Amino acid sequence: MKARPLLLLLLLLVTVPASAHVGSPDVYADAQAGPYHLSIVIRPPLVIPGVADIEVRSQSADVQRITVTPVPLTGEGSKHPPVPDAMQQPSNDRSYYTGHLWIMTTGSWQVRFAVSGSHGEHTVSIPLPAAAMATRKMQSSLGTFLAVLGFLLVIGMIGIVGAAAREAKLPPGAAPPSVNRRAARIAMTVATVVLVAGVLLGNVWWNSEAASYSEYIYKPLQMNASLLASNTLHLELHDPGWFSQRRLDDFIPDHDHLMHLYVIRWPQMDTVFHLHPQAADNGQFNLALPDMPAGAYRLYADIVHKNGFPETIVGSITVPAIHGTPLSGDDAAGEGTPVSAAQTSGVNPVFRLPDGYTMVWKSPGKLIAKAPQTFQFDLLDKSARPAADEALYMGMLGHAAFVKTDGSVFAHIHPNGSMAMAALMMANPQSPMQHATQADNMPGMDMPADKLPASVSFPYGFPSAGRYRIFVQMKHGGTVETGIFDAEVAPAAN
Ligand SMILES: [Cu+2]
Protein backbone atom coordinates (compact mmCIF):
# COMPACT_ATOMS: atom_id res chain seq x y z
CA MET A 1 0.00 0.00 0.00
CA LYS A 2 2.98 2.20 0.62
CA ALA A 3 3.49 2.57 -3.10
CA ARG A 4 -0.01 3.72 -3.86
CA PRO A 5 0.60 7.43 -3.16
CA LEU A 6 3.64 7.09 -5.36
CA LEU A 7 1.43 5.72 -8.05
CA LEU A 8 -0.82 8.73 -7.63
CA LEU A 9 2.26 10.90 -7.78
CA LEU A 10 3.06 9.42 -11.14
CA LEU A 11 -0.41 9.65 -12.63
CA LEU A 12 -0.26 11.41 -15.94
CA LEU A 13 -2.55 14.24 -16.76
CA VAL A 14 -3.68 13.92 -20.30
CA THR A 15 -6.15 16.33 -21.74
CA VAL A 16 -8.45 16.37 -24.69
CA PRO A 17 -9.15 19.57 -26.52
CA ALA A 18 -12.39 21.45 -26.68
CA SER A 19 -14.08 22.59 -29.81
CA ALA A 20 -17.15 24.24 -31.08
CA HIS A 21 -18.78 20.87 -31.13
CA VAL A 22 -19.47 18.08 -28.73
CA GLY A 23 -17.07 15.14 -28.91
CA SER A 24 -15.65 16.19 -32.28
CA PRO A 25 -12.45 18.19 -31.68
CA ASP A 26 -10.69 17.71 -35.04
CA VAL A 27 -10.99 20.60 -37.47
CA TYR A 28 -11.87 19.80 -41.09
CA ALA A 29 -11.67 22.64 -43.58
CA ASP A 30 -12.02 23.27 -47.26
CA ALA A 31 -10.04 26.45 -47.75
CA GLN A 32 -8.91 28.76 -50.47
CA ALA A 33 -5.49 30.46 -50.13
CA GLY A 34 -5.73 32.86 -53.04
CA PRO A 35 -5.98 30.60 -56.09
CA TYR A 36 -4.88 27.48 -54.19
CA HIS A 37 -7.53 25.11 -52.94
CA LEU A 38 -6.63 23.10 -49.82
CA SER A 39 -8.32 20.32 -47.87
CA ILE A 40 -7.12 20.69 -44.31
CA VAL A 41 -7.32 18.56 -41.17
CA ILE A 42 -6.05 19.93 -37.85
CA ARG A 43 -6.02 17.47 -34.97
CA PRO A 44 -5.59 19.50 -31.77
CA PRO A 45 -3.13 18.21 -29.16
CA LEU A 46 -4.02 15.68 -26.49
CA VAL A 47 -2.24 17.88 -23.96
CA ILE A 48 -1.92 21.64 -23.62
CA PRO A 49 0.87 22.55 -24.13
CA GLY A 50 0.92 19.96 -26.86
CA VAL A 51 1.39 19.29 -30.53
CA ALA A 52 -1.34 19.77 -33.12
CA ASP A 53 -1.07 17.43 -36.11
CA ILE A 54 -1.88 18.97 -39.47
CA GLU A 55 -2.62 17.30 -42.78
CA VAL A 56 -3.14 19.17 -46.01
CA ARG A 57 -4.17 17.86 -49.38
CA SER A 58 -3.57 20.40 -52.08
CA GLN A 59 -6.36 20.30 -54.64
CA SER A 60 -4.34 22.60 -56.90
CA ALA A 61 -1.47 21.07 -58.85
CA ASP A 62 0.79 24.13 -58.83
CA VAL A 63 1.52 24.25 -55.09
CA GLN A 64 5.23 23.99 -54.25
CA ARG A 65 5.53 24.74 -50.56
CA ILE A 66 3.28 25.21 -47.54
CA THR A 67 4.26 26.66 -44.16
CA VAL A 68 2.20 26.71 -40.98
CA THR A 69 2.25 29.14 -38.04
CA PRO A 70 0.21 29.07 -34.81
CA VAL A 71 -1.07 32.55 -33.96
CA PRO A 72 -3.56 33.70 -31.31
CA LEU A 73 -6.80 34.65 -33.02
CA THR A 74 -7.12 38.00 -31.23
CA GLY A 75 -5.10 40.35 -29.03
CA GLU A 76 -1.55 41.58 -29.09
CA GLY A 77 -0.14 38.08 -29.70
CA SER A 78 -1.98 37.86 -33.02
CA LYS A 79 0.27 40.64 -34.37
CA HIS A 80 3.51 38.84 -33.62
CA PRO A 81 3.45 35.45 -35.30
CA PRO A 82 6.42 33.16 -34.67
CA VAL A 83 8.64 31.85 -37.44
CA PRO A 84 6.65 29.57 -39.78
CA ASP A 85 7.31 25.81 -39.98
CA ALA A 86 7.60 24.22 -43.41
CA MET A 87 5.19 21.31 -43.93
CA GLN A 88 6.69 17.99 -45.00
CA GLN A 89 5.77 15.79 -47.93
CA PRO A 90 6.10 12.37 -46.31
CA SER A 91 5.23 10.27 -49.36
CA ASN A 92 5.45 10.20 -53.12
CA ASP A 93 2.05 11.79 -53.17
CA ARG A 94 3.12 15.35 -54.05
CA SER A 95 -0.24 16.83 -53.08
CA TYR A 96 -0.07 15.56 -49.49
CA TYR A 97 1.59 17.62 -46.74
CA THR A 98 1.95 17.03 -43.00
CA GLY A 99 3.07 19.28 -40.16
CA HIS A 100 3.16 19.53 -36.39
CA LEU A 101 2.75 22.67 -34.30
CA TRP A 102 3.13 23.33 -30.59
CA ILE A 103 0.05 24.92 -29.05
CA MET A 104 1.35 26.40 -25.82
CA THR A 105 -1.73 27.74 -24.06
CA THR A 106 -5.45 27.30 -23.83
CA GLY A 107 -7.42 29.76 -25.90
CA SER A 108 -8.60 30.87 -29.28
CA TRP A 109 -5.89 30.13 -31.85
CA GLN A 110 -5.55 30.11 -35.59
CA VAL A 111 -3.20 28.18 -37.84
CA ARG A 112 -1.93 30.33 -40.68
CA PHE A 113 -1.14 28.49 -43.91
CA ALA A 114 1.19 30.24 -46.36
CA VAL A 115 1.07 28.55 -49.75
CA SER A 116 3.65 29.21 -52.47
CA GLY A 117 3.44 28.08 -56.04
CA SER A 118 3.29 29.31 -59.57
CA HIS A 119 0.77 32.00 -58.58
CA GLY A 120 2.96 33.47 -55.83
CA GLU A 121 2.39 33.24 -52.08
CA HIS A 122 -1.09 33.38 -50.56
CA THR A 123 -2.29 32.74 -47.03
CA VAL A 124 -5.39 31.44 -45.31
CA SER A 125 -5.99 31.01 -41.58
CA ILE A 126 -8.04 28.33 -39.89
CA PRO A 127 -9.31 28.95 -36.34
CA LEU A 128 -8.36 26.38 -33.71
CA PRO A 129 -9.94 26.54 -30.25
CA ALA A 130 -7.63 24.81 -27.77
CA ALA A 131 -8.51 23.89 -24.20
CA ALA A 132 -7.73 21.06 -21.84
CA MET A 133 -11.01 19.27 -21.43
CA ALA A 134 -10.48 16.29 -19.17
CA THR A 135 -8.06 14.48 -16.97
CA ARG A 136 -7.40 11.05 -18.27
CA LYS A 137 -6.26 8.26 -15.98
CA MET A 138 -3.03 6.40 -16.57
CA GLN A 139 -3.35 2.98 -18.20
CA SER A 140 -3.75 0.46 -15.39
CA SER A 141 -0.96 -1.81 -16.69
CA LEU A 142 1.52 1.08 -16.72
CA GLY A 143 0.23 2.17 -13.32
CA THR A 144 0.80 -1.29 -11.84
CA PHE A 145 4.26 -1.47 -13.34
CA LEU A 146 5.25 1.93 -11.91
CA ALA A 147 3.69 1.08 -8.54
CA VAL A 148 5.82 -2.08 -8.33
CA LEU A 149 8.92 -0.09 -9.28
CA GLY A 150 8.08 2.55 -6.69
CA PHE A 151 7.54 -0.10 -4.02
CA LEU A 152 10.91 -1.72 -4.85
CA LEU A 153 12.60 1.68 -4.66
CA VAL A 154 11.23 2.30 -1.17
CA ILE A 155 12.11 -1.23 0.08
CA GLY A 156 15.54 -0.99 -1.56
CA MET A 157 16.25 2.37 0.05
CA ILE A 158 15.34 1.03 3.51
CA GLY A 159 17.60 -1.97 2.89
CA ILE A 160 20.49 0.24 1.82
CA VAL A 161 20.13 2.46 4.89
CA GLY A 162 20.06 -0.63 7.10
CA ALA A 163 23.10 -2.19 5.44
CA ALA A 164 25.04 1.06 5.67
CA ALA A 165 24.38 1.40 9.40
CA ARG A 166 25.21 -2.27 10.04
CA GLU A 167 28.22 -2.98 7.87
CA ALA A 168 29.70 0.22 6.38
CA LYS A 169 32.59 0.39 8.83
CA LEU A 170 33.32 -3.36 9.06
CA PRO A 171 36.22 -5.00 7.25
CA PRO A 172 35.09 -7.34 4.45
CA GLY A 173 33.73 -10.68 5.71
CA ALA A 174 33.46 -9.63 9.38
CA ALA A 175 30.18 -10.46 11.17
CA PRO A 176 28.37 -7.32 12.43
CA PRO A 177 28.34 -7.04 16.24
CA SER A 178 24.97 -6.77 17.97
CA VAL A 179 25.40 -3.05 18.61
CA ASN A 180 25.59 -2.57 14.82
CA ARG A 181 22.49 -4.68 14.30
CA ARG A 182 20.61 -2.48 16.74
CA ALA A 183 21.84 0.67 15.01
CA ALA A 184 20.69 -0.80 11.70
CA ARG A 185 17.21 -1.52 13.06
CA ILE A 186 16.92 2.04 14.33
CA ALA A 187 18.22 3.46 11.02
CA MET A 188 15.75 1.34 9.02
CA THR A 189 12.85 2.43 11.22
CA VAL A 190 13.83 6.07 10.80
CA ALA A 191 14.29 5.56 7.05
CA THR A 192 10.84 3.92 6.79
CA VAL A 193 9.21 6.81 8.63
CA VAL A 194 11.03 9.39 6.50
CA LEU A 195 10.24 7.64 3.20
CA VAL A 196 6.59 7.02 4.01
CA ALA A 197 6.26 10.65 5.10
CA GLY A 198 7.92 11.70 1.85
CA VAL A 199 5.53 9.61 -0.21
CA LEU A 200 2.52 10.93 1.71
CA LEU A 201 3.67 14.53 1.35
CA GLY A 202 4.24 13.89 -2.34
CA ASN A 203 0.69 12.68 -2.58
CA VAL A 204 -0.60 15.84 -0.91
CA TRP A 205 1.50 17.94 -3.26
CA TRP A 206 0.22 15.99 -6.23
CA ASN A 207 -3.40 16.34 -5.19
CA SER A 208 -3.05 20.08 -4.87
CA GLU A 209 -1.36 20.26 -8.28
CA ALA A 210 -4.15 18.14 -9.74
CA ALA A 211 -6.76 20.35 -8.10
CA SER A 212 -5.26 23.50 -9.51
CA TYR A 213 -4.89 21.82 -12.90
CA SER A 214 -8.55 20.87 -12.84
CA GLU A 215 -9.33 24.59 -12.77
CA TYR A 216 -7.83 24.70 -16.24
CA ILE A 217 -9.92 21.87 -17.56
CA TYR A 218 -12.52 23.11 -19.94
CA LYS A 219 -16.01 23.16 -18.49
CA PRO A 220 -18.61 24.05 -21.09
CA LEU A 221 -21.26 26.58 -20.26
CA GLN A 222 -24.37 24.97 -18.83
CA MET A 223 -27.92 25.60 -19.84
CA ASN A 224 -31.26 25.32 -18.05
CA ALA A 225 -34.21 25.12 -20.37
CA SER A 226 -37.76 25.79 -19.26
CA LEU A 227 -41.12 26.53 -20.77
CA LEU A 228 -42.58 29.98 -20.06
CA ALA A 229 -46.26 30.49 -20.73
CA SER A 230 -47.42 27.89 -23.22
CA ASN A 231 -44.87 28.10 -25.97
CA THR A 232 -41.94 30.29 -24.98
CA LEU A 233 -38.68 28.45 -24.48
CA HIS A 234 -36.49 30.12 -21.88
CA LEU A 235 -32.77 29.31 -21.80
CA GLU A 236 -30.58 30.32 -18.92
CA LEU A 237 -26.83 29.90 -19.28
CA HIS A 238 -24.51 29.31 -16.34
CA ASP A 239 -20.77 29.37 -16.08
CA PRO A 240 -19.66 26.45 -13.91
CA GLY A 241 -16.30 28.18 -13.49
CA TRP A 242 -13.36 28.02 -15.77
CA PHE A 243 -9.96 29.64 -15.41
CA SER A 244 -10.26 32.11 -18.24
CA GLN A 245 -12.37 35.22 -17.96
CA ARG A 246 -15.28 33.67 -19.72
CA ARG A 247 -18.32 35.87 -20.06
CA LEU A 248 -21.98 35.31 -20.78
CA ASP A 249 -22.44 38.63 -22.53
CA ASP A 250 -19.69 38.67 -25.14
CA PHE A 251 -21.31 36.52 -27.83
CA ILE A 252 -20.89 37.63 -31.41
CA PRO A 253 -23.24 36.81 -34.27
CA ASP A 254 -22.29 33.74 -36.29
CA HIS A 255 -23.98 33.60 -39.66
CA ASP A 256 -26.42 36.29 -38.58
CA HIS A 257 -27.46 34.88 -35.20
CA LEU A 258 -26.10 35.00 -31.65
CA MET A 259 -27.26 31.45 -31.04
CA HIS A 260 -28.02 28.53 -33.30
CA LEU A 261 -30.15 26.03 -31.44
CA TYR A 262 -30.73 22.49 -32.66
CA VAL A 263 -33.66 20.84 -30.92
CA ILE A 264 -33.77 17.08 -31.53
CA ARG A 265 -36.45 14.71 -30.24
CA TRP A 266 -34.65 12.03 -28.26
CA PRO A 267 -33.85 9.19 -28.48
CA GLN A 268 -35.65 8.67 -31.79
CA MET A 269 -34.09 11.74 -33.49
CA ASP A 270 -37.13 11.83 -35.78
CA THR A 271 -37.99 15.50 -35.31
CA VAL A 272 -35.43 18.27 -35.57
CA PHE A 273 -35.62 22.05 -35.33
CA HIS A 274 -32.92 24.57 -36.21
CA LEU A 275 -33.94 27.73 -34.32
CA HIS A 276 -32.47 31.06 -33.34
CA PRO A 277 -33.35 32.27 -29.83
CA GLN A 278 -33.28 35.96 -29.00
CA ALA A 279 -30.85 37.24 -26.37
CA ALA A 280 -32.63 38.65 -23.33
CA ASP A 281 -30.65 39.53 -20.21
CA ASN A 282 -27.06 38.49 -19.54
CA GLY A 283 -26.89 34.81 -20.44
CA GLN A 284 -30.60 34.44 -21.06
CA PHE A 285 -32.36 33.64 -24.30
CA ASN A 286 -36.01 33.38 -25.25
CA LEU A 287 -37.67 31.74 -28.18
CA ALA A 288 -41.25 31.47 -29.38
CA LEU A 289 -41.53 27.78 -30.18
CA PRO A 290 -43.23 26.50 -33.31
CA ASP A 291 -45.66 23.56 -33.32
CA MET A 292 -43.86 20.66 -31.69
CA PRO A 293 -44.88 17.10 -30.99
CA ALA A 294 -44.74 16.13 -27.33
CA GLY A 295 -41.62 14.42 -26.08
CA ALA A 296 -38.14 14.69 -24.68
CA TYR A 297 -35.77 16.85 -26.67
CA ARG A 298 -32.03 17.40 -26.64
CA LEU A 299 -30.81 20.95 -27.13
CA TYR A 300 -27.49 21.83 -28.73
CA ALA A 301 -26.80 25.57 -28.71
CA ASP A 302 -23.86 27.01 -30.67
CA ILE A 303 -22.43 30.35 -29.60
CA VAL A 304 -19.16 32.18 -30.32
CA HIS A 305 -17.36 34.42 -27.82
CA LYS A 306 -15.86 37.77 -28.81
CA ASN A 307 -12.36 36.25 -29.01
CA GLY A 308 -13.59 33.71 -31.54
CA PHE A 309 -13.80 30.84 -29.06
CA PRO A 310 -16.87 28.76 -29.93
CA GLU A 311 -18.89 26.63 -27.56
CA THR A 312 -21.71 24.15 -27.92
CA ILE A 313 -23.97 24.20 -24.88
CA VAL A 314 -26.00 21.09 -24.22
CA GLY A 315 -29.37 20.91 -22.52
CA SER A 316 -32.63 19.03 -22.54
CA ILE A 317 -36.32 19.63 -22.07
CA THR A 318 -39.50 17.57 -22.08
CA VAL A 319 -42.54 19.31 -23.50
CA PRO A 320 -46.21 18.53 -24.08
CA ALA A 321 -47.54 18.96 -27.61
CA ILE A 322 -47.00 22.62 -28.41
CA HIS A 323 -49.20 24.79 -30.56
CA GLY A 324 -46.86 27.62 -31.32
CA THR A 325 -46.07 30.29 -33.83
CA PRO A 326 -45.39 29.40 -37.46
CA LEU A 327 -41.72 29.03 -38.40
CA SER A 328 -40.30 32.19 -39.89
CA GLY A 329 -37.03 33.74 -40.96
CA ASP A 330 -34.16 31.28 -40.73
CA ASP A 331 -35.99 28.90 -38.39
CA ALA A 332 -36.63 25.50 -39.88
CA ALA A 333 -37.88 22.04 -38.98
CA GLY A 334 -37.60 18.53 -40.35
CA GLU A 335 -39.10 15.14 -39.79
CA GLY A 336 -37.93 11.62 -40.54
CA THR A 337 -38.29 8.04 -39.44
CA PRO A 338 -37.25 7.03 -35.95
CA VAL A 339 -33.55 6.28 -35.92
CA SER A 340 -34.22 2.79 -34.58
CA ALA A 341 -36.06 1.93 -37.82
CA ALA A 342 -33.62 3.64 -40.17
CA GLN A 343 -31.59 1.94 -42.87
CA THR A 344 -27.98 2.88 -43.33
CA SER A 345 -27.29 0.71 -46.33
CA GLY A 346 -27.80 1.71 -49.92
CA VAL A 347 -25.96 3.81 -52.46
CA ASN A 348 -26.98 7.45 -52.91
CA PRO A 349 -29.72 7.45 -50.30
CA VAL A 350 -32.69 9.62 -51.17
CA PHE A 351 -34.66 11.62 -48.62
CA ARG A 352 -38.18 12.61 -49.66
CA LEU A 353 -39.11 16.12 -48.58
CA PRO A 354 -42.68 17.16 -47.73
CA ASP A 355 -43.07 19.38 -50.81
CA GLY A 356 -42.15 16.72 -53.35
CA TYR A 357 -38.49 17.71 -53.65
CA THR A 358 -35.82 15.18 -52.73
CA MET A 359 -32.37 15.41 -51.22
CA VAL A 360 -29.80 12.88 -52.39
CA TRP A 361 -26.61 11.96 -50.58
CA LYS A 362 -23.90 11.25 -53.13
CA SER A 363 -22.39 8.12 -51.64
CA PRO A 364 -18.92 8.78 -50.30
CA GLY A 365 -18.17 5.05 -50.15
CA LYS A 366 -17.17 3.43 -46.90
CA LEU A 367 -17.32 5.74 -43.90
CA ILE A 368 -14.31 5.46 -41.64
CA ALA A 369 -13.71 7.17 -38.32
CA LYS A 370 -11.07 9.91 -38.27
CA ALA A 371 -10.80 10.01 -42.08
CA PRO A 372 -11.46 13.31 -43.85
CA GLN A 373 -14.35 12.78 -46.25
CA THR A 374 -16.57 14.92 -48.45
CA PHE A 375 -20.30 14.78 -47.88
CA GLN A 376 -22.18 15.94 -50.95
CA PHE A 377 -25.94 16.46 -51.07
CA ASP A 378 -27.99 17.39 -54.11
CA LEU A 379 -31.42 19.01 -54.06
CA LEU A 380 -33.78 17.77 -56.78
CA ASP A 381 -37.15 19.19 -57.72
CA LYS A 382 -40.43 17.33 -58.21
CA SER A 383 -39.31 16.02 -61.59
CA ALA A 384 -35.95 14.87 -60.18
CA ARG A 385 -33.98 17.65 -61.85
CA PRO A 386 -31.52 19.83 -59.88
CA ALA A 387 -33.54 22.52 -58.10
CA ALA A 388 -33.54 25.62 -60.28
CA ASP A 389 -34.45 27.94 -57.42
CA GLU A 390 -31.62 27.04 -55.03
CA ALA A 391 -31.07 29.82 -52.50
CA LEU A 392 -28.54 30.60 -49.80
CA TYR A 393 -29.57 29.59 -46.30
CA MET A 394 -27.96 32.00 -43.82
CA GLY A 395 -25.36 32.93 -46.40
CA MET A 396 -24.38 29.37 -47.33
CA LEU A 397 -25.44 26.62 -49.67
CA GLY A 398 -26.15 24.38 -46.73
CA HIS A 399 -25.79 23.58 -43.06
CA ALA A 400 -25.32 20.11 -41.63
CA ALA A 401 -25.43 18.63 -38.15
CA PHE A 402 -23.67 15.30 -37.58
CA VAL A 403 -25.12 13.71 -34.46
CA LYS A 404 -24.15 10.34 -33.00
CA THR A 405 -27.15 8.31 -31.96
CA ASP A 406 -25.78 7.88 -28.43
CA GLY A 407 -25.65 11.67 -28.07
CA SER A 408 -21.88 11.78 -27.56
CA VAL A 409 -21.15 13.69 -30.78
CA PHE A 410 -22.74 16.83 -32.16
CA ALA A 411 -21.01 18.80 -34.91
CA HIS A 412 -22.51 21.70 -36.87
CA ILE A 413 -20.69 21.83 -40.21
CA HIS A 414 -20.66 24.22 -43.17
CA PRO A 415 -19.30 24.02 -46.71
CA ASN A 416 -16.09 25.68 -45.44
CA GLY A 417 -15.66 23.10 -42.72
CA SER A 418 -16.14 22.51 -39.04
CA MET A 419 -14.86 25.87 -37.79
CA ALA A 420 -17.24 28.48 -36.40
CA MET A 421 -17.89 30.80 -39.32
CA ALA A 422 -17.53 33.91 -37.12
CA ALA A 423 -14.05 32.76 -36.06
CA LEU A 424 -13.14 32.01 -39.68
CA MET A 425 -14.07 35.57 -40.64
CA MET A 426 -11.93 36.92 -37.79
CA ALA A 427 -9.01 34.79 -38.94
CA ASN A 428 -9.27 36.06 -42.52
CA PRO A 429 -10.31 39.70 -42.27
CA GLN A 430 -8.49 40.69 -45.44
CA SER A 431 -10.20 38.17 -47.68
CA PRO A 432 -13.76 37.39 -46.72
CA MET A 433 -14.06 33.80 -47.79
CA GLN A 434 -16.42 33.39 -50.65
CA HIS A 435 -17.28 29.79 -50.29
CA ALA A 436 -20.91 30.56 -50.07
CA THR A 437 -21.53 29.56 -53.62
CA GLN A 438 -18.48 27.40 -54.23
CA ALA A 439 -18.91 28.29 -57.87
CA ASP A 440 -15.63 30.16 -57.73
CA ASN A 441 -13.91 26.95 -56.66
CA MET A 442 -14.83 25.13 -59.77
CA PRO A 443 -12.59 26.01 -62.65
CA GLY A 444 -14.33 26.58 -65.93
CA MET A 445 -17.67 26.96 -64.25
CA ASP A 446 -19.30 30.21 -65.25
CA MET A 447 -22.28 30.34 -63.01
CA PRO A 448 -24.51 33.36 -63.51
CA ALA A 449 -24.45 35.35 -60.28
CA ASP A 450 -28.12 34.73 -59.58
CA LYS A 451 -28.05 30.98 -60.23
CA LEU A 452 -26.71 28.74 -57.49
CA PRO A 453 -25.76 25.07 -57.80
CA ALA A 454 -28.36 22.76 -56.26
CA SER A 455 -25.62 20.90 -54.51
CA VAL A 456 -23.64 21.35 -51.31
CA SER A 457 -20.63 19.55 -49.89
CA PHE A 458 -19.24 19.45 -46.41
CA PRO A 459 -15.72 18.42 -45.39
CA TYR A 460 -15.89 16.37 -42.18
CA GLY A 461 -14.55 13.27 -40.47
CA PHE A 462 -16.45 11.24 -37.89
CA PRO A 463 -14.57 11.23 -34.58
CA SER A 464 -15.39 7.60 -33.76
CA ALA A 465 -17.06 4.49 -35.10
CA GLY A 466 -20.77 3.99 -34.63
CA ARG A 467 -24.10 5.18 -35.85
CA TYR A 468 -24.79 8.79 -36.78
CA ARG A 469 -27.70 10.82 -38.08
CA ILE A 470 -26.94 13.69 -40.45
CA PHE A 471 -29.39 16.59 -40.66
CA VAL A 472 -28.80 18.56 -43.85
CA GLN A 473 -30.47 21.87 -44.59
CA MET A 474 -30.66 23.53 -47.99
CA LYS A 475 -32.94 26.27 -49.24
CA HIS A 476 -34.81 26.78 -52.48
CA GLY A 477 -37.11 29.71 -53.11
CA GLY A 478 -38.35 30.57 -49.64
CA THR A 479 -38.37 26.99 -48.37
CA VAL A 480 -35.76 25.55 -46.06
CA GLU A 481 -35.54 21.79 -46.61
CA THR A 482 -34.25 19.39 -43.98
CA GLY A 483 -32.91 16.07 -45.21
CA ILE A 484 -32.22 13.29 -42.71
CA PHE A 485 -29.62 10.60 -43.46
CA ASP A 486 -28.15 7.74 -41.47
CA ALA A 487 -24.54 6.64 -41.42
CA GLU A 488 -22.78 3.59 -40.07
CA VAL A 489 -19.13 4.45 -39.44
CA ALA A 490 -16.39 1.82 -39.30
CA PRO A 491 -13.46 2.07 -36.88
CA ALA A 492 -10.28 3.76 -38.10
CA ALA A 493 -7.84 1.23 -39.52
CA ASN A 494 -4.63 0.98 -37.50
CU1 LIG B 1 -25.06 26.67 -39.77
Could you give the distance between the termini? 38 Å
Quick one: CATH superfamily of the largest domain? Immunoglobulins
Name the bound molecules.
Answer: copper (II) ion
Low-confidence stretches: 1-18, 434-447
Oligomer: single chain
Write down how many β-strands occur, each being a DSSP E stretch of 2 or more residues. Answer: 26
Number of helical elements: 4
CATH topology of the largest domain: Immunoglobulin-like
Radius of gyration: 29 Å
Q: Give the helix proportion (percent range).
A: 10-25%
Instruction: Provide the spatial order of strands within the biggest beta sheet.
Output: 16-15-11-12-17
Keyphrases for this structure?
494 residues; alpha+beta; Immunoglobulin-like; 4 domains; five-stranded antiparallel β-sheet; 26 strands; elongated; disordered N terminus; binds copper (II) ion
Report on the structure:
With 494 residues, the chain is of the alpha+beta class. It folds into four domains: 3-13 and 135-216, no CATH class; 27-130, Immunoglobulins (Immunoglobulin-like); 219-335, Immunoglobulin-like, CATH 2.60.40.1220; 339-431 and 449-494, Immunoglobulins (Immunoglobulin-like, Sandwich). The chain is built from four helices and 26 strands. It has helices at 3-10, 140-167, 178-216, 421-427, and strands at residues 27-33, 36-43, 50-58, 63-72, 85-86, 96-103, 107-117, 120-130, 222-228, 232-238, 260-265, 271-275, 278-279, 284-288, 295-304, 310-319, 332-335, 350-352, 358-362, 373-380, 390-391, 399-404, 410-413, 455-460, 466-476, 479-489. A five-stranded antiparallel beta sheet has the order 16-15-11-12-17, with no helix packed on it. Strands 21, 22, 23, 25 and 26 form a five-stranded antiparallel beta sheet that branches. A hairpin with a 6-residue loop joins strand 2 and strand 3 (50-58). The longest helix has 39 residues, at 178-216. The two termini are 38 Å apart. The model is unreliable at 1-18 and 434-447 (pLDDT under 50). The chain binds copper (II) ion. Copper (II) ion binds next to loops.
